[in-house]
Amino acid sequence: MLSKILLSLILALGLSLSGCYTGVVQPNKQTRYYIVQKGDTLFAIAWRYRLNAKSIARWNNLKDPYVIKPGQRLRLAYSGSNKAKTETAKTSKSSSRKQQATQAKKKVAEVKAPGSWSWPLKGQLISQYSADRNGIDIAANKGTAVKAAASGRIVYAGNGIRGYGNLLIIKHNATYFSAYAHSRKLMVVEGDDVKRGQKIAEVGSTGTNRNKLHFEIRKNGDPVDPLRYLPR
After folding, report:
1. What does the pLDDT read at residue 19?
2. pLDDT class for 40, splitting at 50, 70, 90?
3. Which of 5, 65, 76, 111 pairs with 152 at a CA distance of 20 to 30 A?
4. Residue finishing a domain among 33, 59, 94
């Protein structure tokens, strides 16, 4: 009798989780370190934990191109008091005037970046951005071309982040990144430079239950509503 009850509970839990989008691990006080797994990249880890890759590199004394190895322990310097933002603020205050001037110039350029976004594909918008869903979902036929929403460099191409299936992450500048999930086929590899409107993948259903594109934009590691940036 007890075994039947346990089986029923397991099945119910499985069904309740099957419809949830679980691609992002929410930060918490206990998640202060991460052990690098095979296939991990610094940008993928940053995406998973909603952090900035440069911040993780700084906290772990990593130099560009941020090479990490399986078994390596990385410090994730944040806590419930938002330690990451506090540390970043302290670093900014201690910067020299020259560094501050350089950062100011970069910010001017970054503010212009959203004006250059374009839709990654034409399809039916089936899910909008929310606190639980870090991006939008666009339904389209299997094999439909997925295009880069803005120019940049591919910093992740793979399927190592749970809930995303075959995933591409593009770095557009120091502030903005975009992601393209559930693709049937990836047309580019890490390190490739891509132009806005260039075909980078094909719509599929990897990591999900239907053919669609899950599209995200992140600013300084934090998810933002893509509809605020995409042309109307």
Report:
1. 35
2. confident
3. 76
4. 94
